[in-house]
Amino acid sequence: MPKTIHVPELINTHCHTGFCGHAEGAVAEYARVAHDAGLTTLAFTDHFPLTERFDPVGYLSVPAQDMPAYKEAVFEARAAHPDMDILYGCELDYLGAIDDRALSDDVLSEFDIILGSVHFVDEWPFDDPAQRGVWEEPGSPERIWQRYVELWCDMAADASMRFDVLSHPDLAKKFAYYPAFDLLPLYERMAEAARAGERLIEVNTSGSYYACKEIFPAPALLAEFCRAGVPATVGTDAHEPKNVTRDIERGYALLYEAGYRELTVPTSSRDRRTIEL
Questions:
Q1: What is the DSSP letter of 47?
Q2: Beta strands in 219-271 (DSSP E)
Q3: 3-state DSSP call for residue 203?
Q4: pLDDT at 215 over 90
Q5: What share of the chain is helix, strand, coil (3-state, %, to 5)?
Q6: What three-state secondary structure class fits 74?
Q7: Of 137, 272, 253, 265, which is closest to residue 205 (Cα–Cα)?
Q8: Cβ neighbours of residue 259 under 8 Å, at least 6 residues apart?
Q9: In a 3-state reduction of DSSP, which class is residue 186?
Q10: pLDDT single digits (tens) 4-43
Q11: Is the pTM of this model over 0.85?
Q12: Distance CA 119, CA 103 (A)
């Protein structure tokens, strides 16, 4: 475990609220907890609506009809905490060729920050605990990891999509199923794709609380991102208010140990700033 390092400010660029079916808590409560903890930046990034094909019961994403209320709640929180940079954002699931949504610039331009993530491998939600048994089939870890990384690299390098930050890069390790082969070549591909796409990557502190017991991304993958010159930020991926500040400084320490000497922070003005580590 990396030792904790202290920096002048704490930021969180990834959290979900009760507007998503699988999270809980009001936007105002997240903002209050973050403010009381001294955070200077907080990005609300509830999942952009999926169609019924991918989210038939409205559990994975914000229902389309609730997006105006979600936006209003974030802007109310911003007004209530003018000393904190509060971003109105979303996590946009990358579906590749099977995406059945209309993702025009007009639809996405209102967001301050868009997180890109892969949760589906060819329509299969590979990180859904209810479908974890698929991982135990012979050859599944090898097949799933290869396909996940292929899709992830497509997302990272896709110039037609606006992804500001690439979230939990090695989410495929969530249930602690790993392929028999060496992951380093896949890590190198991911780092090159992120650099080519000029994306930020995210150190996501939630990984420690899944079966993998490790922050996303793994230290070796984070080191590859650093070597490739890919800037990085930090998010807790909170799904309830009490976790809005969880392990942020641990995330900073991992960045430092991987070779980073600064943290990159998206802003509500859609710019970037840096914090020295």
A1: B
A2: 232-235, 262-266
A3: strand
A4: yes
A5: 40, 20, 45
A6: helix
A7: 253
A8: 223, 226, 227
A9: helix
A10: 566 779 999 999 999 999 999 999 999 999 999 999 999 9
A11: yes
A12: 17
Residue 194's pLDDT band (cuts 50, 70, 90): very high
- Phi, psi angle pair for 230, to nearest 5°: -90, 120
Task: Look at the chain and count its residues.
Answer: 277
Q: Give the integer Cα–Cα distance in Å for 154 and 171.
A: 15
- Coil, helix or strand for 118? coil
Neighbours of 185 (CB within 10 A): 10
Burial class (CB in 10 A: 0-12, 13-18, 19+), 115: buried
Taking only the tens place, the pLDDT of each residue in 137-190 is 999 999 999 999 999 999 999 988 899 999 999 999 999 999 999 999 999 999
Contacts of 104 (CB under 8 A, 6+ apart): none
Rg, the chain, Cα only: 17
Show Cβ contacts of residue 11 under 8 Å, excluding neighbours closer than 6 positions: 39, 40, 41, 42, 233, 234, 248, 263, 265, 275
